[in-house]
Amino acid sequence: MRAQRIGLLAGGVLLxxxxxxxxxxxxxxxxxxxxxxxxxxxxxxxxxxxATHDCVQPLKKERDQCRRAGQDGCGKAYGAAFPNCFKAPxxxxxxxxxxxxxxxxxxxxxxxxxxCHSSCRSARKADVKACKLIAAGGNVWAGGDASCLATAQSxxxxxxxxxxxxxxxxxxxxxxxxxxxxxx
Length: 184
Known about the structure:
- The protein is an all-alpha fold.
- 71% of the residues lie in helices and 0% in strands.
- The N and C termini lie far apart (79 Å).
């Protein structure tokens, strides 16, 4: 009985739309609008100059050996020495700012992840609630309740993945930051 009512309702909506479409085709209006298009491009960070690269590589090797040895403070020592591989004074100052920003970003990762995951859970709860409306006779959304629940889960999975990538966001921001610092 419910399927018949939905079929009749859908048929009525379709007929109403066809009548509306026929009425619209009788009148044609042409409007000309001038538009401007702007294209922006984000360039990838450029590689270091040979001199800067030759300065950074031994520092990275020292940091990695320090970490393998299980010592503490390896990242701090690297962060303190890294800016000196750029052209003084502007390049060094710029690199110090980038290192400081990266350190702050990594410090905020735990709270960022917590807030992000909380937001994902809230969105999933709202999506599942919307999916349950389908079974209660609400609007059909995303092809039915099984498809709706699958979509809600997929959205949650993508959201959770984005949350786990907070550290990578810090690393990427750092790469773009130091790309603006003057090399040796």
